[in-house]
């Protein structure tokens, strides 16, 4: 039994219209719309639900304000659901329900987050991605790298939470669902992937000294580094605010760009993370600025000038022109 990744996330939000506008700018497609919630989809069918925070059937929030209320993970088949159900049926908040005809089981994790599982509804897709020419190998011949005017996220790649007890939550996801730890900040953080073979992390747990619980960010996978840049500059042109980026994480090797999200906390475009197998040995890192980012642009890039925020735009036809 192995978990395949995130199938759906649900936000409880205070301003549904603003959050809808943001997610459409972000590159998600509108799937359905109702008075108290909307459903959007990524390229492979991963769903993002925006619901009014007072919608009666939403799971309880782990923090005040707009935030994530539920994470639904996908599995391969009904037999996998039965295995998980047997493991969690005695846990707080256990549910075995039908949602729009789809069986969904779940419980509440030790941090208070509603976690659910269903047979995956995502579909396999093929997308054109940039090939990187290096000194050793040059797979891109007679073909320029792409330039993206905006992003179309492929899926929700990972979620990151502030947790009160990182060891307890890490053990819960390992024992109940077979998650695997990729790397750690000892006593402070755990990067976890949902199967032995896969991207560096699908879930990151971060313990702060004050024991705060809440959402840190939700990350969306895009094709390549060029889409990180193109998507980020489009969001900048739309008037949304960068938190940090673009930049590159040393721990996962991924390129990133974080924005402030009206639906709660932060939201990230990322690409080119490390791919791991069961042979990988988890590493320990001491938290610090250079561990979080090998390099990063504070304030982001201006999507119109194509320069760092507040820098003057280009003048003349060539960079080397002098007035």
UniProtKB/TrEMBL annotation:
Residues 155-272 form the VOC domain. SUPFAM superfamilies: Glyoxalase/Bleomycin resistance protein/Dihydroxybiphenyl dioxygenase. It holds the Pfam family Glyoxalase. Residues 301-323 are annotated as: Disordered. CDD domains: ED_TypeI_classII_C, VOC. This is Glyoxalase.
């Amino acid at each position: 039994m192995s978990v395949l990744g995130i199938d759906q996330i649900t936000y409880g939000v205070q301003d549904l219209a603003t959050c809808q506008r943001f997610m459409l700018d972000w590159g998600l497609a509108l799937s359905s719309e109702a008075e108290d919630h909307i459903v959007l989809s990524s390229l492979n069918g991963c769903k993002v639900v925006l619901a009014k925070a007072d919608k009666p059937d939403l799971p309880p929030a782990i923090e005040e304000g707009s935030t994530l209320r539920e994470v639904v993970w996908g599995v391969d088949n009904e037999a996998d659901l039965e295995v998980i159900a047997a493991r969690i049926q005695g846990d707080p908040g256990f549910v075995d329900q039908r949602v729009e005809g789809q069986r969904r089981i779940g419980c509440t994790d030790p941090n208070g987050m509603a976690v659910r599982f269903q047979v995956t509804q995502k579909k396999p897709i093929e997308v054109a991605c940039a090939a990187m020419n290096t000194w050793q190998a040059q797979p891109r011949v007679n073909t320029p790298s792409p330039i993206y005017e905006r992003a179309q996220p492929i899926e929700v790649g990972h979620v990151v939470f502030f947790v009160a007890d990182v060891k307890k939550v890490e053990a819960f996801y390992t024992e109940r669902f077979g998650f695997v730890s990729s790397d750690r900040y000892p006593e402070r953080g755990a990067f976890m992937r949902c199967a032995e073979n896969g991207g560096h992390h699908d879930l990151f747990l971060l313990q702060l000294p004050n024991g705060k619980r809440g959402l840190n960010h939700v990350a969306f996978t895009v094709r390549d580094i060029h889409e990180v840049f193109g998507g980020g500059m489009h969001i900048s042109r739309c008037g949304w605010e960068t938190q940090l980026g673009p930049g590159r994480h040393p721990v996962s090797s991924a390129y990133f760009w974080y924005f402030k999200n009206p639906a709660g906390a932060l939201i990230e475009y990322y690409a080119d993370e490390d791919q791991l197998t069961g042979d990988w040995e988890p590493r320990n890192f001491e938290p610090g600025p250079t561990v979080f980012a090998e390099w990063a642009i504070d304030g982001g890039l201006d999507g119109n000038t194509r320069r760092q925020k507040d820098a003057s735009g280009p003048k003349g036809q060539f960079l080397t022109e002098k007035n």
